[in-house]
Amino acid sequence: MNNVRESEKIQTVIVGAGQSGLSVGYHLARRGLPFVILEANARIGDTWRRRWDSLRLFTPARYDGLVGMRFPAPMHSFPTKDQMADYLENYARHFKLPVRTGVRVNRVSKRGGKFLVETDVGEIEADQVVIAMADFQKRRVPDFARELDPSIVQLHSCEYHNPGQLAAGGLLIVGAGNSGAEIALEAARHGHPTWVSGRDTGHVPFRIDGLPGRHVLAPIVLRVVFHRIITLNTPIGRKVRPTAVSHGGPLIRVKPKDLAAAGVKREPRTAGVKNGLPVLEDGRVLDVANVVWCTGFHPGFSWIDLPVFGPSGAPMHERGVVATEPGLYFVGLHFLFALSSTMIHGVARDAEHVAKAIFHRARSEAA
Questions:
Q1: How many angstroms separate the CA atoms of 155 and 144, rounded?
Q2: How far is CA 207 from CA 171, 185, 249, 258, 306, in A?
Q3: Based on the number of CB atoms within 10 Å of its own CB, is 202 exposed (0-12), middle (13-18) or buried (19 or more)?
Q4: E strands, 112-150, where?
Q5: String of b and e for 105-134 (b: at least 16 CB within 10 Å)?
Q6: Residue 259 and residue 188: Cα distance in Å, rounded?
Q7: Could you tell me the domains of the chain?
Q8: Nearest CA-CA partner of 347 in 20, 65, 16, 14
Q9: Which stretches does DSSP call E strand in 200-311?
Q10: In whole angstroms, what is the distance from residue 331 CA to residue 239 CA?
C-alpha cells in the first residue's frame, strides 16, 4: 500500500489569521493572487478572546480598523478585546478571505525548491510563505519559578483572565509594563494586597481618554512619532529599536498614581526564591498567595526549520522580506519596520509592503 501523500499546492500560504495575516490577505486578494490563510484557533480572533476579560485597546476605535473596513464603534471609544476579535472575524467574512481555521502549522521547511508547510491535517507545497505572527508566541518565566511553594497560584499574563482565578491573599506581579500594571490595578480593586516588581518603564503623562489623549496620543504620538519618525529609515529609530525590542514600553492607560491610590506597592526586581517564597533583589521575602508572571514571551518560532535566524534567535529580514530565503516573509513582529509595527495602522503598512513583494516575485516567476 502506498502511504505517500501528495502535497496540496498553493502559491502563497499565510500562517496566522490575526490582523497581520488578514491584512496581507486583503492586499493579495486585491491583486488577484491565489493564497490560503491557516489559523490554528477554532475561530478567527480567538487569540484576542483568550486575553484577560477587562482588556481594552489603547487606541480609539477610529484608528482600529484594517484597510477597507472601519471599526464599528464610536470613534472615541476604546474597544474591548472581544470586540476586536469579532471585528477580525467579520473582516475575513466581508472580504471572503480564504481562511482555514483549526489548522495548526507544525513545521515549515524546504523540499525540492518549494516551501513545505506541514500541518496537523496534511501538507501544503508553496512558492511563498508569510509568517503573520507576533514574536511572542511562547511564554517566558524564570527558571526559579518552579522553586515556589506549590500552594502559591502561578499564572503567566497569557493565562490570567480575572481575579476569580486568584487565591485569597497577596499577589505579586512580576513585570511592571502595561500588562502588569493593568492586572495589578484590577486585583487590588478586588481586595488583593498587591505588589508590582520590576523596573519603572515610564508612563504617558496624560489620560488617553481625555482631550489630550484624543488630540495628542493617537494623531501625533501613535500616527506620527511611532509610525513615521521612529522607523528603521531614521537615525533615531535605529537607535531606539534595540531598547524597544528588549524592554516594555511606557504605561499608557494606568498611571503610577492610580496604582498608589489602589494600594499597589512598587518593588524592585524579583531575584529568586527563598523557602518557597519570592525574594526581591534587595533581599526582602514576600509572603504572597499568588504570582502573575508578566515577564514577556519567547518568539516561539522553533517550528520554522530554515536558516533565517540570527544569533539572538530573531528572524533576519528587511521590512519583513527574508533575503536569504527568497519567498519567505514575516509580518507582525515587534518593530518590524517602525515602533507602530504591532499596532493596527503599522501592521497595515507592513502587510502592504510584503504583499507587493509577493506580487512582484510571483509575476517574475510567471514571466
A1: 14
A2: 26, 16, 16, 11, 45
A3: exposed
A4: 114-119, 122-132, 138-139
A5: beebeeeeebbbbbbeeebbbbbbbbbbbb
A6: 9
A7: 8-137+299-366 (3.50.50.60), 140-203+250-293 (3.50.50.60)
A8: 20
A9: 265-267, 270-274, 277-280, 290-293, 297-298
A10: 21
Helices 19-30, 81-94: axis angle to 10 degrees equals: 20
Note every long-range contact of 213-222, with CB atoms under 8 Å and residues 24 or more positions apart, other chains counting. Answer: 214/60, 214/76, 217/252, 218/59, 218/60, 218/62, 218/63, 222/59, 222/63, 222/340, 222/343, 222/345
pTM, two decimals, is: 0.91
pLDDT in tens, 309-364: 998 888 999 999 999 999 999 999 988 888 888 888 889 999 999 999 999 999 98
- CA proximity to 329, closest of 27, 12, 7: 12
Quickly state the pLDDT bin for 4 (edges 50, 70, 90). Answer: very low
Residue 35: left if φ>0, alpha if ψ -120 to 50, beta else—which one?
Answer: beta
Beta strands, E only, 16-98:
35-39
- 277-321 pLDDT, tens per residue? 999 999 999 999 999 999 988 778 999 999 999 988 889 999 999
Helix, strand, coil shares of the chain, percent, nearest 5, are 30, 25, 45
pLDDT digits (tens, 9 = 90+) for 11-27: 999 999 999 999 999 99
